[in-house]
Amino acid sequence: MSDAAESFLSGPLLAGFVAAHTQVHLEVFVSDEPLDIVSEGYDAGIRLGEVIDRDMIAVPVSGDIRLVVVGAPSYFARHPKPKHPRDLVHHECINWHPTAKAPPYRWEFTEKGRDFSVDVRARVLTNDPALNLRLARAGAGLTLADVRARDDIARGALVPVLEEFSAPFPGFYLYYPQRRHASPALRALAGHVRRMRKDGRGGRRR
Questions:
Q1: In the chain, how many domains are there?
Q2: What is the distance between the alpha carbons of residues 198 and 78, in angstroms, rounded to a whole number?
Q3: Helix, strand and coil in the chain, % to nearest 5
């Protein structure tokens, strides 16, 4: 599963599953690199819904996700807040890519129902969203953040901007091949995820 997915699964979802199924042993591999779960021998994966192949069974884990641009008050003391995503080309940005060979992520926005992306100028480029948040907190530049920045925003350590251009999109799903017979452990995990989502607890961090 991806690093971002791990942040949604940490806490009650996986811990509750392990506690309820003491005979099951989990092996979890966290990576943002593209991974073929079938050829690599994994029973299932967790990815954003938009990148999962259509021939997979997909069970929602996190609900919709919304990415917002954030910066520290110290950064905005030196730079004016962007009023439109196109203004980002004039800002110091902290960007992300999944692997060293992958291109930097193009920041995605929505305006009047139309989706578009911006190729920001990356002052810093990493493969670690958590590091990007720490750098933004220190005033190094603007970055994209998900629910992991909620506490920083609440206490004023990070300030969101361009929120009106940030639309929610389908979040993370547990997925596995429909053509392969699911093991009892995988069926139990899928059922656990469905129950957690039904109870409103799936994908939430305490």
A1: 2
A2: 46
A3: 35, 25, 45
For residue 7, the model assigns a pLDDT of 62
CB 149 within 8 A of CB 159: no
- How much is the average pLDDT of 180-191? 86
* Alpha carbon distance 187, 190 (integer Å): 5
> What's the burial of 49, exposed, middle or buried (CB within 10 Å: 0-12/13-18/19+)?
middle
Residue ranges in the chain assigned as alpha helix (H)? 3-9, 12-20, 37-40, 73-76, 129-137, 150-154, 184-198
d(C-alpha 204, C-alpha 30), whole Å: 18
Q: Which amino acid is at 142?
A: L
Q: In this predicted model, what pLDDT tens digit does every residue of 124-136 receive, in sequence order?
A: 999 998 999 999 9
pTM of the shown model: 0.73
Q: Residue 143: is it exposed, middle or buried by C-beta count within 10 angstroms (0-12/13-18/19+)?
A: buried
- Please indicate, yes or no, whether residues 24 and 99 belong to a single structural domain of this protein: no
At 41-61, the pLDDT tens digits run: 888 988 888 778 888 999 888
* Residue 18 DSSP class: H
CATH number of the domain encompassing residue 114: 3.40.190.290
Does 156 lie in the same domain as 89? yes
Domain region containing 58: 3-63+170-198
d(CA 168, CA 115): 12
Report the alpha-carbon distance of residue 174 to residue 15 in Å, rounded.
Answer: 16
